Amino acid sequence: MKVSVVGCGYVGLVTGMGFVRLGYDVVFVDIDDKKIEMINDARAPIYESGLEELMREFRGKYYATSDYFEAISNSEVTFICVGTPSKKDGSIDLQYVESAARAIGRALKEKDSYHVVVVKSTVLPGTTENTVKPLIEKYSGKKAFEDFGLAMNPEFLREGVALRDFLNPDRIVLGVRDDRTRQILERLYKPIKAPKLFVDIKTAEMIKYASNAFLATKISFANEIGNICKKLGIDSWEVFKGVGLDHRISPHFFRTGIGWGGSCFPKDVKALIRKAEELGEEPLILKAVVEVNEKQPLKLIELLKKHVPKLNGKTVGVLGLAFKPNTDDVRETRAYPIIKKLLEENAKVIAYDPKAMENFRRFYPDVGGKISYATSPGEVLNASDVILIVTEWEEFEGLDYSGKIVIDGRRIRSAEKTAKVYEGVCW
Ligand code: NAD
């Protein structure tokens, strides 16, 4: 079976290369010529562990183009993996999904054989059937579930371990309406041994939002308890180890720190809040989950000020800019509000991240352009006596923090052992 993937970001590239790994031929489509060129050169436009190696190993089994006609005519199934960012008011911005749907429609018009379109982007319940379907139908002149197949298949991969997650998922959720589409997707995903849950299309869309909202809630809940623990002199990591041993709760994704960021939780929780309000429901828990998360990174500054009351003119070292380790993704990273606050207090900031410095500078020109960047974590330690740990990159474990004041948002054990003054945000 041949597959095409529209949108070559974190999800699209990993999905496409995952299918290549399973033995399929893949055509990637993007509107960004630089990405197309890099993919055709077997170079990954994003950093994701193992991705570029896979691209080099399977060169010839995939290629990238900006031509939808070519991609659709050379494949039987197309996955839509374009971004669904937030608008200013928190609601979902569907412009990329809509333009992909229009272009797929135009290409389908020229194709005689049956083709399945699968929405993998995270979209609110109803989007596939009420937005994507009418656009494809309008531009192709064909009817969904008769002339072409349509499905929704949310993605649950985690950046940093994305390929592993794609190939070994906890479950595959498939929102379908017609048997023909269901059979094609069953065949496509046959090599992956995981429970496959077939549901209707809007249920599949909701499963993704409910999953992300729950995970975000789990972390904000842990942080709220963690903040109480901190005041009581209790190590919240021990608390959640104990709590997580209850099999109804599970220990996974249950750590305290400076909160969640990234390209998914913030925008998805906000989009769900807006949708609930639009429906006349007040999402009390979800709003509190966001509020806790917005306050949490600033706890690091509060703790810092206990030891360094005046930040004016002081050089502060920041270790980590990515929203989590093993990725270069800085979207909604907790580093941003922290560095913004430091600059507001007239501190000088020197930062280091193994993969995300370039992205940070580009994404956040208001603060990213005002700080200095080190070429190694050692350079940060040399430049400053005051260190904030923002991302738990493994290499930060290998450092000697002797003589330093360290305020840790992620729990780096070597800092805890060697720093002159050490404060954990919730421990
Ligand atoms: P991304 O921003 O990294 O990539 C999107 C890509 O789509 C870009 O390369 C962009 O150039 C391309 N694009 C935009 N419009 C296009 C068009 N009309 N035609 C072709 N290409 C187009 O996004 P991402 O992080 O990969 O996320 C994609 C979707 O998957 C989102 O809905 C997101 O919520 C969801 N998701 C993301 C993750 C994650 O960890 N990143 C996990 C699960 C689900």
From TrEMBL:
The active site is at C264 (nucleophile). It is an enzyme of class 1 (oxidoreductase). It catalyses: UDP-alpha-D-glucose + 2 NAD(+) + H2O = UDP-alpha-D-glucuronate + 2 NADH + 3 H(+). One of its GO terms (molecular function) is UDP-glucose 6-dehydrogenase activity. Keywords: NAD, Oxidoreductase. Substrate binds at F156, L157, R158, E159, K208, F253, F254, R255, T256, G257, G261, K324. GO terms for biological process: polysaccharide biosynthetic process; UDP-glucuronate biosynthetic process. NAD(+) binds at D30, K35, T84, T122, E159, K267, R331. Residues 317-415 form the UDP-glucose/GDP-mannose dehydrogenase C-terminal domain. Its EC number is 1.1.1.22. Pathway: Nucleotide-sugar biosynthesis; UDP-alpha-D-glucuronate biosynthesis; UDP-alpha-D-glucuronate from UDP-alpha-D-glucose: step 1/1. PANTHER family: UDP-GLUCOSE 6-DEHYDROGENASE TUAD. This is UDP-glucose 6-dehydrogenase.
